[in-house]
Task: inverse folding
């Protein structure tokens, strides 16, 4: 079902709230209201951060690790697409670590159930380049 003319689908609004809470480091909102107690977060790739974690605590720990492994990171939300099952966020990441620089798009699929994010799958558009950057050698 689509939202009424001119309106945003409720799952798009929830996805935007999750993005904002992550951006602001609002762990209380994420753990208490936005993420399901049994949430599963999967980051795709072949690098140390490409893992699957379960539960809000592990998800928040994994997100915190992103910032620990870089000198600088900026993530921008470009677009949100949503339907009754969830949302897809199209984002852009700029990260720097020493001489390495990553500029790339990431698609984040969120399955939403009962008003909370139940499952997340984050897939870089250029997987090879993303893996090269996130390998911490």
Result:
């Amino acid at each position: 079902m689509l939202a009424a003319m001119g309106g945003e689908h409720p799952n798009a609004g929830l996805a935007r709230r999750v993005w904002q809470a992550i951006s602001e480091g609002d762990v209380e909102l994420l753990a208490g209201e936005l993420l399901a107690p049994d949430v599963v977060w999967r980051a795709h790739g072949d690098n140390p951060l490409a893992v699957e974690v379960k539960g809000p605590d592990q998800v928040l720990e994994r997100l915190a690790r992103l910032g620990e492994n870089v000198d600088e990171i900026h993530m921008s939300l470009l677009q949100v697409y949503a339907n009754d099952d969830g949302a897809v966020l199209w984002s852009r990441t700029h990260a720097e670590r020493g001489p390495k620089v990553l500029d790339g798009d990431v698609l984040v699929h969120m399955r939403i159930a009962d008003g909370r994010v139940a499952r997340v799958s984050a897939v870089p558009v250029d997987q090879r380049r993303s893996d090269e950057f996130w390998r911490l050698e």
Remarks:
- The longest strand covers residues 100-113.
- Residues 100 and 133 are 7 Å apart (CA to CA).
